[in-house]
Amino acid sequence: MRRLTRTVAAAALATALALVAGCSSGSDKSDDAKSAGAAGLEKVTYLTSFGNFGRDSYAWVAKEKGFFKEAGFDVDIKPGQGTGAVIQTVVGGQADFGPIDLTGGLLQLGNGQAKDFVAVAAIQQRTMAAIVSVEGKNIATPKDLEGKKLADTPSSVVRNLFPTYAKLAGIDASKVTWVNGEPQTLMGTLASGAVDGIGQFVVGQPTVEAVTKKKPVVLPYSNVMQDLYGNALITSTKIAKEKPEMVKKFTAALLKGLEYALANPQEAATILKKNVDATNPAAAAAELQLMAAYVRSSNSGTALGTLDSGRVAKSIALLQGAGALKQNLTPDQIIDFNLAPKA
Question: What is the pTM of this model?
Fold first, then answer.
């Protein structure tokens, strides 16, 4: 799900500043935060999925528009580092909630790499995982990735799901080289020409174009794996068990922020810019506009956040069929359906 040199040196600096800004804005206790605490609001630490890009701006919207406060929460938003890191931080008790790629969560749980977390709402009804390149790299189809060098964080769902994607897309994975990268440097690495592509979400293409000054080439995983969910909100099994009503209230407030952000992408981008100075508002708004198509599906109807047991079972079967899971799983092992929104 674990979880993202601007002309090259400028790109790394700008994005790094975004991460730092996210950390500092979350960790520094402002007068507002202090007064909120005094008013009896429950303190909650929330991680974004991956840095502070437009795709995660809905959390800032929920805070800025007062949705969290109305639900009884004083929320500290910090930048996440991908699916694996978000799971580790939530399970370790350093954060209460965060979005992960649900497929990445299945891989972590099914291979014994993580436990003690549950998903309580879907953020995207379809996976947004993708390989992103740029024009001039001679990449147009999945098969073209053979002989190429790709970069991503080791815990990224894009990287960890790649063997399954490769098998289904007819790629010889042994002919693809992966190198390690960090969220704040990935796009700069692509811009510099050091790699041919990066692990990224589909909605990241406006930001990729802004950084690289080239037209992105996107290979979505959903083209060959259609049943996979995208990001899902998780919490620890401890919190889910001990504070179910708190989880429901927080989830509802966050999804209210998501709905508002999708309906008002320009305003959401402005809010993100206000909180994370290095934000490119145009790219952030464009990410939200692209993401809108992934947030609802025919299964979810008009409701946001729904999770369907049958679809999750199909995702598990797909991963098992590709040999990606060492252990058998059931949907109930990763999702608390009593806490998830209903379709």
Answer: 0.81
